[in-house]
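Re: [help] complex structure
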Amino acid sequence: MHLDLDAFFAAVEQRDKPSLRGRPVVVGGTGGRGVVSTASYEARAFGARSAMSTVEARRVCPPGTAFLGPRFAAYKRTAEVVMAVLRELSPLVEQVSIDEAYVDLAAGGHDLTVAGVTELATGLKQTIAAATGGVTGSVGVGSSKSLAKIGSELDKPDGLTVVPVGQELAVLHPLPVRSLGGVGPATAERLAQVKVKTIGDLHRLSLIDLTSLVGQAHGTGLYRLARADDDRPVVTDREAKSVRAEETFARDLTDPVRLSTEIDALAARVGSRLQRSGTSGRTVTLKVRRYDFTTLTRSQTLAQPVDDPRQIAEVAHRLLGAVDRSGGLRLLGVGVSGLSTYVQGDLFAELLDEPATPPEEGTETEQGPGDPRPGPAVVAWHPGQDVVHPELGAGWVWGSGLNRVTVRFEGPRTAPGPVRTLAADDPGLQPADPPDWT
DNA sequence: TCTGGGGTCCTAGGACCC
DNA sequence: TCTGGGGTCCTAGGACCC
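Output below.
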């Protein structure tokens, strides 16, 4: 099953402010360079759409239209209520965005007949509306993620479409190729050039023709989707792979001091989010949009993962120094990717074991002659390095951050597994001579 | 007063390694 | 006596999604 909440941001605003109900509401950036996040159905009647510039939306919508900045905290709270309702249906719930989720109904042990899922989904919609104070959703049910998602699109708002087993191709084939996930403007245009407009047209294309047209991975994916061949599982927890913050300025920036300040602020946002989620990453990326909207990225991969705003900013400053800023910059972004898996290990350690042990103050340590003494600020433990610890024995470094190091004392060296989190300057932790691998 | 912000995945070329 | 065949990692860009 796929659930898509209807005009979600606008619906929450209308719920919280009764005077907005029945009126056109547009949520999004309200400044000169803002775009629309969500238009209520009343606003869509006038042509307002997501991703449209707010200036354009103001032009098409009548006086009395409400233009509101987003209140993400309110949306998140409401979405959490909905997700909790879904999790009562099945242990397998995959939230794909703030307002969308898949539910594996089979894993919830439900009656999967058309009558059974229709009754279930009808009840669910009522429960959601009651629990959220009137937010509605559109539901699709089918034999795969793709079919369920297409189903939820077919009847909205507040709709329900069940695609019966055996009817998949009959439902799919008349639809435009744009209905398939992964077909955007560029792919649709390429397909149109060979007279492929509907999913039925797509079905007639050979695998060879399709992959030569849109690429290997995309081609094989679309070939299968056109045949209702989709076995992607519903996955509960997906780890984030990158974190980024970016900002479009009200006016293009040229002042190096201002640019520098903006980099610092973006790095601070990224760093604090990384630290809050207990992750860090090795690749720092700078994104630049120039006055003429040309956009480029520059990245650098470091030897050590970082989550410290100052370190992230330092790399970003360096990258910005190498790009042409003449004419002014419209946007800057700072991101960190290549997020370390060892942080999963941190969570592991806290669940299975004691939490990280901070070093005791004033602890005397014995130093072997010639052992490097870790400095007080940054200790450069590197992944794979062999270490010894007086209480924990011999191990190797799984990952390291600015102030902590995760060390494995058992298991295979490459696969994830339990780790101990230690302060990076834990006096007991010492480099070891590597074992004599044969 | 055109064109946000936060993500994911894929491709392609070059460096490097065995 | 021109230049193999794998593989991985890094960088940059593009398409797509909500």
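Confidence is low (pLDDT under 50) at residues 343-379, 434-438 of chain A.
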